[in-house]
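Structure ticket #2291
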Amino acid sequence: MSFVSDSLSQVVQRVLLVVLRVYLGTVVLVAGWGKLSGEGEFASRLVGMAERNIANGSTHGFYQGFLEGVVVPNAGLFAALVIMGEVLGGLALITGTATRLAAGGTAFMMLNFMFLKGRWFWMGSSNDAAFFFIALIVMLGAAGRAFGVDYYLAKRWPAVKLW
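Resolution: structure written out below.
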């Protein structure tokens, strides 16, 4: 078997996973790239959003303590982690490299964004929920094994579950 024949063996399922993987990677990379525009700018926007949502009661009650006690005092660290997660995760998803890890990290970020905004999975206005489920599908479907670097990584190290 070869890269192309293995990738085409389940054409419809794999193509759909590749489309979801590349779409999610592009969305996440563009979001992260946009946050790189100003030094410290995203950290102040993150604090502002957290404080605004806490003040107007938008944030879930169970998440407020985490925001107030951990995120806001360490906004610079969390801003850097979000930017790195979005840029590196987006690149990994687009190229299909360590896709399960990248998709899992993306799902985790989307879940936190949802909680920050006070959204739930069933709310129609929650893009983060849709992206969470796309990331979950990409992660569980090992989407990087079709037309991605994970194809080669899985051949070389088949026991590693990151691909």
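Closing remark: The two ends are 18 Å apart (CA to CA).
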